[in-house]
Design a protein that fits this description.
The protein has 165 residues and is an alpha+beta fold. The chain contains 3 helices and 11 strands, in the order βββαββββαββββα.
């Protein structure tokens, strides 16, 4: 932050939280999401961190959760060393529960710390089949190549995103 006539500069700590409201089709879906959020609180992804979050059920079909906003770069599955961290600590993890959407915007490298965060809680799911995980990873890597190719050619090419199963 800078202030005053002399433009004094100081470093201050700030934090932001995003509020997400999800309306589910039924209570079963809402309960499944709550189960996932509760389970995620107990997980450890080694070098891949989970932002602070809290949630509350509003009614039978609505959930609101607040999640710490991680200011950073959406390159966690696109560049080293972060790409290997996600592959080893998320995709190859022993648990049958993991994240299933490996697009670069779902893994943020924090600007000030270079820490890596998983930010797409909806893709946290039961995914025991390692070959399915690897296929999803491969698809995401192809999408990343197309995105970066477009950037290098000064053209935006909107990628086709295949949402996880």
């Amino acid at each position: 932050m800078s202030y005053g006539v002399e433009r004094t500069t100081t470093l201050i700590h700030t934090s932001f939280y995003l509020t997400k409201k999800i309306t589910f089709n039924n209570r079963i879906e809402l309960d499944a999401m709550i189960e996932k959020l509760d389970r995620l609180k107990t997980e450890n992804f080694n070098r891949v961190l989970i932002p602070d979050y809290k949630y509350e059920r509003i009614d039978d079909n609505v959930l609101i959760y607040e999640v710490e906003f991680i200011k950073g770069f959406p390159v966690g599955t696109a560049v080293e060393p972060y790409k290997s961290m996600v592959y080893q600590d998320v995709l190859e993890r022993e648990s049958d529960w993991t994240f299933s959407d490996y697009h670069l915007t779902n893994f943020i490298v924090e600007t000030t710390t270079d820490k890596l965060y998983a930010v797409d809680f909806q893709s946290y799911s039961y995914l025991p089949d390692r070959s399915v995980r690897k296929n999803m990873w491969h698809d995401s890597q192809q999408t990343h190549r197309k995105i970066f190719e477009g950037i290098m050619n000064n053209k935006w090419i909107k990628p086709k995103i295949n949402y996880p199963h």
